[in-house]
Design a protein that fits this description.
Blueprint (H helix, E strand, L loop, with lengths): L2 E6 L6 H9 L17 E7 L2 E7 L9 H16 L2 E7 L6 H13 L2 E7 L21 E3 L8 H10 L14 E6 L6 H9 L17 E7 L2 E7 L12 H16 L2 E7 L6 H12 L4 E6 L8 H14 L7 E4 L8 H15 L5 H14 L3 E2 L2 E2 L2 E8 L4 E6 L7 H15 L7 E6 L8
Parallel strand pairs: 1-3, 1-4, 4-5, 5-6, 7-9, 7-10, 10-11, 11-12, 16-17
Antiparallel strand pairs: 2-3, 8-9, 13-14, 15-16
Helix pairs in contact: 10-11
Length: about 450
């Protein structure tokens, strides 16, 4: 097990900025509105010869509202499971009464703690942070998360406090599975069901999950990272900058994931939003699965699955290669199958054909159905698979202008018929063939 490092602190002290700095990516949403981070966020970090997991948390709150109490509950769980606590305070504002409450809670946990005085942009400003010594923590580091000042010192301090031999070992990377879909279709319930705890806040208000939230889960004795995302909305106009940031965060998360699961509400069916998200996945070249959630609420008839499948296939014709699984996050129905399919889909996404295999399919396709347009025959001079994740194939032809989308689709179908490539987009590129000049 890797050492778990959890970031805590009152709202708006820079926890998410520090999280992003430590992991080296813009993963958590950063905004001046207190309470932007509502869930816990996990990410694996490697520093020197050791690895550890960093967890970002919602800001500590004494408010009695539903959301604030759930945020505090998330924080309590994170501290309980942490090995090292990074207690973040605001060096610009100074000591706050809530800091003392949190300090007391951290000390009660009896966990290794590092007090991180944030927003200290220069060495001269460190004097402002001396009052935080009154909180009674032995390990104190003055940093500026937004500028990166002294974050390496903080990483060194974390490294020093990893008590056990947790050196980096070469091992299989965990499969990262991202859940995408419009608000309130059950993505957070899916995460909670497979994580077997309330990992994400579940609420019937659309947009409850603002940021992407990742969790380590164990399914059939195999570990995965499941990423819950903020819901994507229809239309090009954003209601406010928070919604824009949520969408942007989802986009970053999609880029970082291995397999995407498009979650569809069985009660609502497939609409424009699902089509939009499916196109986004195709544009990003991501392998995908469609999970139709809330299937426990649908009256079971023989024609029900066929009707829903036909409707979905019609709306996403461009993603004919995707698998559809009918699930229930509430009852756990077929959730394990989503992970089994994700493993298979990722293998297809990573598949490399031999040149001999590729040659055979292309030659047979051309022989069976040569392409002629305006009396001119399309001739293939060279062809090869040049990439995986997703699979990319390049064809050198006599005239690129002869390429018609119908013939490109025909070649793709030939490849899929022979080799499958289930669940993954494949990309076909065409270029003009130039004969190499032979020097005398």
């Amino acid at each position: 097990m890797l050492t778990k490092v959890v970031i805590v602190g009152r709202p708006n002290v820079g926890k998410s900025a520090l999280f992003n700095r430590l992991i080296g990516k813009k993963k958590a949403i950063i905004h001046s509105m207190p309470g932007t981070t509502r869930d816990r966020n996990d990410y694996e970090v490697s520093w020197k010869d050791k690895k550890f997991i960093v967890t970002d948390t919602a800001g500590w709150s004494t408010d009695s509202s539903v959301f604030s109490s759930q945020m505090s509950f998330q924080l309590d769980i994170a501290i309980e499971k942490a090995d090292i606590i990074l207690f973040v305070v605001d060096g610009k504002i100074g000591l706050h009464p809530m800091d003392k409450q949190i300090a007391h809670q951290v000390r009660l946990s009896r966990k290794t703690a590092i007090l991180v005085v944030n927003k200290i942009d220069t060495q001269a400003e460190e004097i402002k942070g001396y009052e935080f010594y009154s909180l009674g923590f032995e390990n104190i580091v003055f940093v500026s998360a937004s500028h990166g000042r002294s974050t390496h010192d903080l990483l060194d301090k974390i490294w020093e406090n990893i008590k056990y031999d947790r050196k980096v070992k070469k091992k299989e990377e965990l499969l990262k599975i991202i859940l995408v879909g419009k608000p309130n279709v059950g993505k957070s319930s899916f995460v909670n069901a497979v994580a077997k705890e309330e990992r994400s806040i579940v609420h019937n208000v659309p947009g409850t999950t603002r940021d992407s939230v990742s969790a380590h889960v164990n399914i059939d004795n195999k570990e995965y990272i499941v990423i819950d995302t903020a819901g994507l909305h229809r239309g090009s106009k954003m209601k406010d900058d928070m919604e824009y940031l949520s969408t942007l965060s989802t986009s970053y998360a999609i880029d970082d994931a291995d397999v995407a699961v498009l979650v569809v509400d069985a009660l609502q069916g497939v609409g424009d939003t699902e089509t939009k998200i499916a196109r986004l996945l195709c544009e990003k070249g991501k392998p995908a699965i469609v999970a139709v959630n809330k299937w426990d609420l649908i009256e079971k008839k023989e024609e029900t699955i066929k009707y829903f499948t036909d409707q979905l296939r019609e709306r996403i014709k461009f993603m004919s290669w995707v698998s559809i699984i009918f699930v229930s996050a509430k009852t756990g129905q077929r959730l394990n199958r989503v992970f089994q399919e994700a493993e298979f889909v990722f293998e297809q996404y990573s598949r490399q054909l031999t040149q001999e295999e590729f040659n055979e399919v292309v030659r047979n396709a051309i022989t069976r159905k040569p392409y002629v347009s305006k009396g001119k025959t399309l001739k293939f001079k060279e062809y090869a698979q040049v990439a995986i994740k997703p699979p990319v194939f390049i064809f050198s032809v006599n005239d690129v202008k002869l390429i018609h989308f119908s013939y490109q689709r025909y070649l793709e179908n030939c490849l899929r018929t022979k080799f499958g490539f289930n669940g993954t987009p494949i990309i076909l590129k065409f270029r003009k063939y130039y004969r190499k000049k032979v020097e005398n």
